[in-house]
Design brief:
The chain is α+β, with helices and mostly antiparallel strands. It has a single domain, classed as VirB8 protein (Nuclear Transport Factor 2, Chain: A). About 50% of the residues lie in helices and about 30% in strands. It has a five-stranded antiparallel sheet. Strands 1-2 form a two-stranded antiparallel sheet. Helix 3 packs antiparallel against helix 4. The longest helix has about 60 residues.
Length: about 190
């Protein structure tokens, strides 16, 4: 019987020795080691895939929250800007109370001080100011805080001017979610 060189080489390879067609203990350990490494690799791959899926879900969830916050803040910005930047000398206190409903935090105190100082001038000049938002855009957004650039036209008339004048302003409004409602926490004219 002739044995080829390839057959002899297979028989002499470590871990592949056979006794009567069976693997030796060393061969079984090698095969078990390969299977265990394969199982470990599959487990690691499964964990990594789960982490990637979880990260993707969380990023998508945050993006949805941010988009919802932007939609709600934009819907609030128009009425808020109109209330905050409008007043009528004939019903000044009611105009201010309407504006106060849209403000929060330190800005609420600033708004109260500003309107208190403005009242005597507005009544003396019989001033009426109507603010209208012409456009707005997002500067920065998080799920509970949105910063918007608002283009605001203020139509004003008073006893000292003929007809109506229009002031075109740009205002940065920072809105915060407070008890489920969006309120203006800061207004900065630019």
């Amino acid at each position: 019987m002739r044995t080829s060189i390839a057959t002899l080489a297979r028989r002499l390879r470590p871990g592949r020795r056979t006794v009567k067609g069976r693997r030796t203990a060393e061969g079984r350990r090698t095969a078990e080691g390969r299977r265990s490494r394969l199982h470990l690799a599959l487990a690691v791959a499964t964990v990594l895939a789960g982490m990637a899926a979880g990260t993707a879900w969380y990023a998508h969830h945050r993006a949805e929250q941010r988009d919802s916050a932007v939609r709600q803040a934009l819907a609030t910005a128009g009425p808020a800007a109109k209330a905050i930047f409008s007043y009528d000398y004939r019903s000044f206190d009611a105009s201010v109370a309407n504006g106060r409903a849209f403000v929060t935090g330190p800005f609420a105190d600033e708004y109260a001080e500003t309107t208190s100082a403005l009242k005597s001038t507005a009544v003396a000049e019989q001033a009426v100011v109507l603010a209208e938002v012409s456009a707005s855009g997002v500067i920065r957004a998080e799920s509970a805080e949105v910063e918007l650039l608002v283009y605001l036209n203020q139509y004003r008339r008073n006893a000292n001017t003929d007809g109506e004048k229009v002031d075109q302003n740009r205002v940065v409004l920072e809105l915060h979610r407070v008890d489920g409602e969006w309120k203006v926490a800061r207004a900065t004219a630019i």
